[in-house]
Automatic annotation (TrEMBL), chain A:
Superkingdom of source: Eukaryota
Protein name (database record): Septin
Taxonomic classification: Eukaryota, Metazoa, Chordata, Craniata, Vertebrata
A GO molecular function held by the record: GTP binding
Keywords: Coiled coil, GTP-binding, Nucleotide-binding
TrEMBL record, chain B:
Source organism, top-level taxon: Eukaryota
Any one GO molecular function term: GTP binding
UniProt-recorded name of the protein: Septin
InterPro entries registered for this protein in UniProt: G_SEPTIN_dom, P-loop_NTPase, Septin
UniProt organism field: Calidris pygmaea
Lineage: Eukaryota, Metazoa, Chordata, Craniata, Vertebrata
Keyword annotations of the record: GTP-binding, Nucleotide-binding
Amino acid sequence: EQTNCDLFSVYGFHLGLFTLFRSYSFLQNKNDGYRTLPLSGHVGFGSLPDQLVKKSIKQGFCFNILCIGETGSGKSTLINSLFNTTFDDPVSSHFLPSVKLRAQTYELQEANVLLKLTIVNTVGFGDQINKENSYQPIVDYIDAQFEAYLQEELKIKRSLFSYHDTRIHVCLYFISPTGHSLKTLDLLAMKSLDSKVNIIPIIGKADSISKTELQKFKNKIMSELVSNGVQIYQFPTDDETISKINTIMNGHLPFAVVGSTEEVRIGNKMVRARQYPWGIVQVENENHCDFVKLREMLICTNMEDLREQTHARHYELYRRCRLEEMGFRDIGPENKPVSLQEAYEAKRHEFYLELQRKEEEMRQQFVQRVKEKEAILKEAEQKVHAKFEERMLALQEVKLKLEKKKKVLEDEIAMFVEKKANAEVLQSQPSVSTPLLSLKKDKDRKKYVLMLVIRGSKKKFLHISLL
Amino acid sequence: MEPEEHSMEPPATPEEEMPLTAAPGPAGCQLFGYVGIEAVLDQMKVKTMKMGFEFNIMVVGQSGLGKSTMVNTLFKSKVSRKASQPGQEERIPKTVQLQSVTHVIEEKGVKMKLTVTDTPGFGDQINNENCWDPIIKYINEQYERYLREEILITRKRKIPDTRVHGCVYFVMVVPPWGGGHGGHAGVMVVLGRLRPLDLEFMRRLSKIVNVVPVIAKADTLTLEERAEFKQRIQEDLKTHAISVYPQEDFDQDPDDRALNDRIREKIPFAVVGADQEHQVNGKRVLGRKTKWGIIEVENPAHCEFPLLQDLLIRSHLQDLKDITHNVHYESYRVRRLNESNRPELSSPNGLPGKGEGGSDL
């Protein structure tokens, strides 16, 4: 017994030493190997977190929420209930041809905290007959916000300090309260968004499902999400102060919420509620729906974590992919780290060469086009010339012909005039009254008849008259 | 937290990101019930406390001015070892050498990684030309290190910050009996003003880092002499356009300006450092014991050490870090990234899209 006790105590002693050593080295690791100095008095940097908070208050906070859900799933009502105000959001129709996103920014103030809240609503989600391109506009929008931030960060002279951050910090995905399972569109949309944004699935208009159905519905949804590999946002459990409540909340996902813009009198208070003939559904009653849980998780407990995850995980992933796409690498071809300078210069040079090449191309094209146009014009000119020549020739011919005809006509006229003159001369000679009475006159008469006959013939006229 | 009546600001100027038009929001909504936006402040506090803080401070001044004692008093712990310990040889280095020592200190659950950079050999040579070069090189190196980390494709979640957040410059008190007033022919004594070395150093460094000048070993000055000395120093700084911390250009709003103006009136602080405790009026205080009395370091009537401590740690520590990050680091980055716009690289057409506002890519 004695030896057993000794062994046990020795063992215990070693165990104690071991744990002590382990905890010490753990502490060492925490401090990156630096010595921890004891303070011999009050220094005052315990106020550092307060200094930081004071600065942040002055700067203000940004929070951007994206609501995805079919038309009429209760998105706007829920947002109004969450922030206890009425944001103006016109009701949209079911007949929009494609999904569009509508963003509105509001400034809310509570105590001394200024919050710049941006709500982005999807309009027309799930309304089309062909829903293939339903979620692409959403992905594009999220990427566009990341891109804007990245461009600002890459500028030479930048002002990140005063940049209005529009990156989406949380995506509330509204699931229709069918009670059965997720729709294909839901799965596809969430799958394409889970690596870009923190997704919190929500069952909207949950007052249409009974309690037992609700639990089955929730389980079905979660198992479907898990089996399809969709990574929704998990509330962080690494901080002791909030890990317990966050773990509980993680088990309640997806939150079944009811929103209302109307107030009903219950007892002596006015609360947000929906009044039915069979009872009143109170929005802020935890037995009725998970609204309070959602508000707590989203705003009171995890807003900062959502913002941090967006910046440290989703944005970094986007940035990495984008820079690699652009051709930047951290390690050069010989496995040596590429310096920033060289990378930038190489890229700049590349772009410059590209630009020159494009310019050259365009110049060539321009010259080409000019040449072509010139050729066409020349051809046309030639054609016109040819026509002109033709017409001139034709004109000449016609002119000649006309001249000839004119000459012929003139000749005829001249002959006619002559004949006319001669006839007049003959008529003016002593006139024979009865050329039939005398023989002499017979001869004359013959001559006269002869002359009459011959008068018709031009050529022999002169000849006969001499007779 | 109890539900209170708050009036919400009306939704102001809705902005558009995608083409559908939005009507302006309704005015003045009454809210009942508590939303909980304030809680984000607590969340932030918890996160930053978990992450811990980093603070890097540099002390510059001739040897024997009490730099190490000052730092130890400031942080109430043996952060730097004094150069002249009994039994150790005192060596004056041939060139300015920078020594950085890092410790972790904790107070009220807040962990701070403190790095103190000492500069032995500064101003100790006969020819002190360019003794500020190693210091400037060190500061720029830290900026470069941060820049490289920031530019990586896969970068760390938290980039280690080794940039110098504040540089405390120890100004030597020129004893009023050092050779008469004014300028006697042949005797070059600068009475009660900043020496050329001080001016030169502060001028160069205030452009790249926050400089906090302090009058070292101020227990040799009477109150009137102290006021006069300060006045002259302030004039000198103004004449040479040296902007020391808190810089006037970075006051963000009237409250800041009022607060900082009060501090600027008292710059440079006259400090006395001590690391030994003595008994005064039944209390144990840090002080220097002399034959004619005990100078209490933390007594505002005796010296301005509490003011310095307040400025550096209690009220403006975060501000020092912010100005270093938002102003000095950014201007370093601009200079560095513009360096590659060398003229021989560009053709006669010039590189497209260059300039201060354009994106690099």
